[in-house]
Design goal:
313 residues, alpha+beta, Alpha-Beta Plaits, 2 domains, six-stranded antiparallel sheet, six-stranded mixed sheet, 16 strands, globular, disordered C terminus, binds adenosine-5'-triphosphate, ATP hydrolysis activity
C-alpha cells in the first residue's frame, strides 16, 4: 500500500519527556498504520503513549523525530490542508448546560457555516434524535459523549479520532458509543479509537495496533492479531483421562481442567470429536475457545507495567 492508502501513518515516531528522573521515552520509534475506512483500535495500557501519539498527530505536541502523515499529507507541516477532514475528541468539549442538545449543535453549526439540515443528520448518526430537545444538563455521561461526537461530525470529517471515549461510562453508555463508532465506519469513515480496555475495542474494531512503552507490539486485522495466537477447544467427555491419552497419542496438546479437557492450538473441533468417537469416547461438549485480545495483550507485553516510563536508550 502507498502512503495515501492510509488514513494515518507514522514512521520512526519518537517523543521523550523531561521528568524528575531525567528524560523518559513516551513514544519509541513508532510505525503506526491506520487503513482508510473502518474502526482501528489503538490499544495499550495506561501511560503506553497513546495520547502522546494522538496529540502529535493533531499538532498539539511536537515530536522529537520521525514522520507522520494524515491522508498522505505530512503533519504537522501540512495540517492546515488536512485538518478539515479530521474530527478529534481529545478532551470533553464545553456545552451550555441549560440549552438543549440541539440548540448547542445549532450554535456550533452556525459558527462553522454547516449546511442546513446537518444538525438533524448528526443527531440521527449519534442516536440522539429523540433526545435533541432535552437540556444538556439532564444528559447521561454517554449522551454527553455522543453529543461531543455529534459536534465533531458537523464538519463531516473523513477521519475521527477518539481518545478513550468510553472512560467513565457505564456498560449501556459503552454500548452506545460502540454503536456510534460502527455506524460512522459503515458510512465509509475511518475511526481511530484508543483504549486500555481491550475487550471494549475488540468488539467494534476491524483492525488494531497494540503498543507498550511507546512501541508497536502487533498490528493488523483483529482476526489475524488474535488468530495467530493459538485458540483452543474445550471438550466435555465422560472419561477425561482416557480422552487425554487418545488425543495426546494423536499429537495434540491437552490439559485436563476438572471434568473438561482444553485442547490447545487445535482449531478443528471435528477432528477432536472424530478421534474420540473412533475410540468409543462420546463428546458431550465441544466449544472452540476464542483467545481474547486481553490474553494476546498480556502475552505480547509480558507484564502489566508496559505503560511505565522507560529510560532513554
Ligand atoms: N506533558 C507530559 N510531561 C511529562 N510526561 C508526560 C507528559 N505527557 C505524558 N507523559 C508521559 O508519557 C508517557 C505516555 O503517556 P500517554 O499519556 O501518552 O499514555 P497513554 O497511553 O495515553 O496513557 P493513558 O491511557 O493513561 O491516557 C507516560 O509515561 C506519561 O507519564
Amino acid at each position: 500500500m502507498g502512503q495515501t492508502d492510509y488514513a494515518i501513518s507514522t514512521r520512526d515516531l519518537r517523543k521523550t519527556y523531561r521528568g524528575a528522573r531525567g528524560r523518559h521515552v513516551a513514544v519509541d520509534r513508532l510505525d503506526l498504520r491506520v487503513p482508510v475506512g473502518g474502526v482501528h483500535g489503538f490499544l495499550g495500557p495506561n501511560g503506553s503513549g497513546k495520547t502522546t501519539t494522538i496529540r502529535m498527530l493533531l499538532g498539539l505536541v511536537r515530536a522529537d523525530s520521525g514522520r507522520m502523515r494524515i491522508f498522505g499529507q505530512h503533519v504537522p507541516e501540512q495540517l492546515p490542508e488536512v485538518v478539515g477532514r479530521v474530527g478529534a475528541i481529545v478532551e470533553s468539549p464545553k456545552f451550555f448546560p441549560s440549552f438543549t442538545g440541539r440548540t448547542n449543535l445549532d450554535l456550533l453549526a452556525r459558527a462553522i457555516d454547516a449546511p442546513h439540515g446537518r444538525v438533524d443528520e448528526v443527531l440521527e448518526a449519534t442516536g440522539l434524535r429523540e433526545r435533541g430537545a432535552d437540556r444538556y444538563r439532564g444528559y447521561s455521561l454517554g449522551m454527553k459523549q455522543r453529543l461531543a461526537i455529534a459536534a465533531t461530525l458537523l464538519k463531516q470529517p473523513d477521519l475521527l479520532i477518539f481518545d478513550e471515549p468510553t472512560n467513565g461510562l457505564d456498560p449501556a453508555g459503552i454500548h452506545e458509543i460502540r454503536g456510534t463508532m460502527r455506524r460512522l465506519a459503515d458510512e465509509g469513515r475511518t475511526v481511530l479509537v484508543s483504549s486500555h480496555i481491550l475487550a471494549e475495542v475488540e468488539q467494534v474494531a476491524d483492525t488494531v495496533s497494540i503498543i507498550g512503552r511507546g512501541r508497536l507490539l502487533a498490528t493488523g486485522p483483529v482476526a489475524d492479531v488474535i488468530g495467530d495466537r493459538t485458540a483452543g477447544v474445550r471438550v466435555g467427555v465422560a472419561e477425561p483421562e482416557r480422552a487425554r491419552q487418545v488425543l495426546e497419542t494423536a499429537g495434540l496438546l491437552v490439559r485436563v481442567e476438572g471434568q473438561h479437557l482444553m485442547v490447545d492450538g487445535e482449531r478443528d473441533p471435528a477432528r477432536i470429536s472424530w478421534l474420540l468417537g473412533t475410540n468409543g469416547l462420546w463428546v458431550n461438549e465441544l466449544a472452540p475457545v476464542r483467545v481474547g485480545l486481553e490474553s494476546v495483550f498480556l502475552e505480547l507485553t509480558g507484564s502489566s507495567t508496559l505503560g511505565a516510563e522507560g529510560d532513554v536508550r
